[in-house]
Design a protein that fits this description.
Layout (H helix, E strand, L loop, with lengths): L4 H28 L1 H19 L10 H23 L6 H16 L5 H6 L4 H17 L5 H31 L1 H12 L2 H6 L5 H22 L4 H20 L1 H17 L5 H29 L4 H7 L4 H7 L7 H8 L4 H18 L2 H17 L6 H5 L9 H6 L6 H28 L8 H16 L11 H24 L6
Helix pairs in contact: 1-2, 1-21, 1-22, 2-21, 3-7, 3-8, 4-6, 7-8, 7-10, 7-23, 8-23, 10-11, 10-12, 11-12, 11-13, 12-22, 15-17, 18-22, 21-23
C-alpha cells in the first residue's frame, strides 16, 4: 500500500531537517575543527567499504557474549571517568536540586517554594532525590553530603548505562544480534554521553525514560492490535507518559509522536481499536500525572496563590529566546518583577512583539532558521565541554585538560567529537533518504523521526541549548544506525546480488 500524503510530507521534512544538521555540522567543523572536516570523507569511505564487504566467519561470532563483556568494561570505565571529571561546584539547576534535597533530609528544611513554583518541571526530580537520600540516611545515619554527591554521580552513570543497554536491546529487536553489537559499539563511542554521565538530572533520567518508552512502543508494534496484551502495553505507555510530563516535557514529544504515528498508520477498519487504545493511554497518562502531583504536594505544599505569584508562563522562554537564543538573567528578573501570572503573561507577550518588530522580516528568518539552529546543533560535545568547564574538579588531571572547553588538549578532543558527529549525521541522512524511498507505510522508527522534527521545532521557538538534545542522543544514534543498515542492504545487493543476512 502506498504511503498517504501526510506520511510523505513527514518524510520530506525529516530529510530537509537532517540535511540542515549536516550543513551545520560541516560548517562547525570548518570553523572549529578543520582536521575533522578533512578526515571525515576518508572515514566515511572506509565505513562504506566495510559495509560493502562480507568477511567470512563474522556471522558466527558470539555477539551476545562480546556485548556483555563490552558493557561491563564500559560501565567500569564510565564510573571512573565520571568521578574524575565531574565538577565539585554544584552549579545550575542540577546542583540546586542536590543541595535542596540533601538539606531537606539533614535538617527538614523546606525547599525554595519560589524556585519550584517558578520551575515546576524540576519538582519530580527533587522528589526522587529526597526519597533516595532519605532511604540512604535511614540505612546509614552518618552519611555526609559528599557521599550524597558521589551517590548522584553513580546514579547518573547508571541511568546512562540503562539507556545504552536498552538501545542495544532495541537494536537486537530491529536488526538481530550481529548488527546490534556494532550499533552498541557505535553508541559507546558517543563521548557526549560520557561527559553527561556524572549528572543525575532530568537530562540523564529523561534519556532513560525515553528509551523505556521507545522499547514499550516497539513491543506494542510487534504485539499488534488484538488481545489484552496490547491494551496493557498501552496502559503502561500511558503511565510512563504521565511521568514524562512531570519529569521532562521534551520527552513527552516522543509520546505525541507515537500518538500521531498511530493515527497516520491506522487503517479505517481499525478505527475503533485505535480510539479505545488511545483513550486508555490518555487516561493512564492523566492518572499517573495526577497521582505524582498529589504526592509531590505533600513534599512541596505550594498553593495556587504561590503559583500565581511566582510561576513563569511559557511565553517567558519564547521571549527570552529572542535575545540570542539562550538563558538571560535580565529576562528572568524582568518576568519575575510582575506580581501575578496574568501580568507576567501580558508583559512577556508585549515584549515578544517588541523584539520581533525590532528585527526585519529577513532578520527574524535568519535568527530562527540560522542563528538558533547553529546554537542548538553545531556543538559536537552537546555543551558537555562547556558544563565541565564551569568548575575544576582536578585542575592538574590530563583527562580534565582533554574534556574541558578551556583545557590544553581540548582541541584534539574536539576533532574526535566532530568526526563522530559527522558520522552520526551522515547515517541519519542515509536513513532519511531510505525512509523517503520506502513505498511501504510506516516503519519501526517512524515515531523517532517525528520526535526529532518535534524537538527541532521546539528549539526553533523556545530557549535553545545543545544540552537539551543530550537525552535524544541514543535516539539519534539509533536513527543513524538505521541509515547504515539500509545502506549496507543496498551495497551488498549491488555487489553480491543477494540480500544481506541479519
Amino acid at each position: 500500500m502506498k504511503k498517504n500524503l501526510l506520511i510523505r510530507a513527514v518524510d520530506v521534512l525529516y530529510v530537509l531537517f537532517v540535511c540542515a544538521i549536516a550543513v551545520i555540522a560541516l560548517v562547525s567543523m570548518a570553523s572549529g575543527a578543520l582536521p575533522a572536516l578533512l578526515l571525515l570523507p576518508f572515514l566515511l569511505a572506509v565505513i562504506v567499504w566495510v559495509l560493502r564487504s562480507r568477511p567470512r566467519g563474522v556471522g558466527r561470532l558470539p555477539y551476545r557474549t562480546m556485548w556483555l563483556c563490552l558493557f561491563v568494561v564500559g560501565a567500569v570505565l564510565m564510573f571512573a571517568f565520571a568521578l574524575s571529571v565531574c565538577a565539585d561546584d554544584l552549579s545550575w539547576d542540577w546542583g540546586k536540586l542536590i543541595r535542596s534535597a540533601a538539606e531537606y533530609v539533614f535538617t527538614g528544611e523546606k525547599a525554595d517554594a519560589i524556585y519550584f513554583a517558578r520551575y515546576p518541571n524540576n519538582q519530580l526530580w527533587y522528589g526522587v532525590l529526597v526519597c533516595l537520600f532519605s532511604l540512604v540516611h535511614m540505612a546509614v545515619p552518618s552519611v555526609s553530603f559528599a557521599q550524597f554527591f558521589h551517590l548522584t554521580i553513580a546514579m547518573g552513570c547508571l541511568m546512562v548505562l540503562v539507556s545504552i543497554g536498552l538501545f542495544h536491546h532495541i537494536a537486537v529487536m530491529l536488526w538481530g544480534e550481529k548488527k546490534a553489537f556494532f550499533a552498541g559499539v557505535f553508541l559507546w563511542l558517543c563521548f557526549p554521553l560520557w561527559m553527561w554521565s556524572p549528572y543525575a538530572y532530568t537530562d540523564t533520567s529523561g534519556m532513560m525514560l525515553l528509551m523505556i518508552l521507545l522499547y514499550v512502543w516497539l513491543v506494542l508494534r510487534r504485539k499488534g492490535a488484538g488481545g489484552a496484551g496490547p491494551l496493557c502495553l498501552l496502559a503502561l505507555f500511558g503511565l510512563l507518559a504521565g511521568v514524562a510530563w512531570k519529569l521532562k516535557v521534551t520527552v513527552f514529544i516522543f509520546v505525541l509522536a507515537v500518538f500521531l504515528t498511530m493515527l497516520l498508520e491506522s487503517r479505517r477498519t481499525a478505527v475503533k481499536g485505535l480510539v479505545a487504545g488511545l483513550l486508555i493511554a490518555v487516561l493512564c497518562a492523566f492518572g499517573s500525572r495526577t497521582a505524582l502531583g498529589a504526592g509531590l504536594y505533600r513534599l512541596l505544599p505550594i498553593d495556587a496563590e504561590d503559583y500565581d505569584k511566582n510561576e513563569f508562563p511559557m511565553s517567558h522562554w519564547v521571549m527570552m529566546s529572542l535575545k540570542y537564543g539562550g538563558y538571560n538573567q535580565e529576562d528572568v528578573d524582568f518576568t519575575g518583577s510582575f506580581p501575578s501570572y496574568e501580568e507576567k503573561q501580558r508583559a512577556n507577550l508585549s515584549e515578544i512583539k517588541r523584539r520581533l518588530r525590532a528585527r526585519s522580516a529577513a532578520g527574524n528568518l535568519k535568527f530562527f532558521f540560522v542563528d538558533k539552529q547553529f546554537r542548538t546543533w553545531s556543538d559536537p560535545s552537546f555543551a558537555g565541554c562547556e558544563y565541565l568547564s564551569r568548575a575544576k574538579h582536578d585542575p592538574d588531571g590530563w583527562l580534565e585538560e582533554l574534556v574541558r572547553q578551556d583545557g590544553d588538549k581540548n582541541g584534539i578532543f574536539l576533532v574526535v567529537l566532530s568526526l563522530y558527529y559527522g558520522v552520526m549525521v551522515a547515517g541519519m541522512v542515509a536513513g532519511a533518504l531510505a525512509a523517503l524511498r520506502n513505498t511501504e507505510r510506516g516503519g519501526a522508527l517512524s515515531a523517532a523521526r517525528l520526535t526529532m522534527l518535534g524537538i527541532a521545532l521546539l528549539m526553533t521557538l523556545w530557549e535553545c541549548n545543545s544540552r537539551y538534545i543530550v537525552l535524544f542522543l541514543p535516539l539519534m544514534a539509533l536513527l543513524s544506525c538505521e541509515g547504515y543498515v539500509e545502506l549496507r542492504k543496498g551495497l551488498v545487493k549491488e555487489k553480491h546480488g543477494e540480500e544481506d543476512t541479519p
